[in-house]
Write a structure and sequence with these properties.
The chain has about 140 residues and is mostly beta strands. The chain has one domain (about 5-130). Helices cover about 0% and strands about 50% of the residues. It has strands spanning about 1-5, 10, 15-25, 30, 45-50, 55-60, 75-85, 90-95, 105-115, 125-130. A five-stranded mixed β-barrel has the order 6-7-8-10-9. Strands 2, 3, 4 and 5 form a four-stranded antiparallel β-sheet that branches. The radius of gyration is 16 Å and the shape is globular.
């Protein structure tokens, strides 16, 4: 599968996760991966897979298409801040754009969704969060 940037992702036993970093000195998490800590300015960063599940911290629905190179068909889409437990809050697209179906505190999980189609007709995927499945 082609992604917008392979450096954003890491494979885990549970599936693809966001590739983050954690400071070995102060414990701060970052996304995307960084070589230096924005909290303590240390350089002891460790690559870590971030949690694949979290809670919707805040959200909005944008009533316009993303800037190019987006080539999808949606004219509006959900965007939110997702709190990954014990790690950080990450900004991400949401798989849901209906305000009636979004609520602060709802459990969400990481998914890969088509972002655009490249010049060869291949779908290029990005990350988003959707309502967590109940297994």
């Amino acid at each position: 599968m082609r992604t917008v940037d392979d450096s954003l992702f890491i494979e885990t036993a549970e599936g693809v996760a966001l590739r983050g970093s954690r400071c070995a000195d102060c414990g701060a998490y970052t996304f995307p991966y960084q070589g230096g800590c924005p909290r303590c300015t240390g350089d002891s960063m460790i690559e870590v897979p971030l949690s694949r599940t979290g809670t919707l911290w805040s959200w909005t629905v944008q009533g316009f298409r993303p800037k190019p190179p987006y080539t999808g068909t949606a004219d509006s889409y959900g965007v939110g801040y997702v709190e990954l437990p014990g790690e950080l809050i990450v900004e991400a697209r949401l798989t849901e754009a209906d305000p009636e179906r979004l609520r602060i505190g709802m459990p969400v999980e990481l998914v890969l969704v088509p972002f655009r189609t490249d010049e060869s007709g291949v779908d290029v995927h990005t990350f988003a969060f959707g309502e967590a499945r109940h297994d």
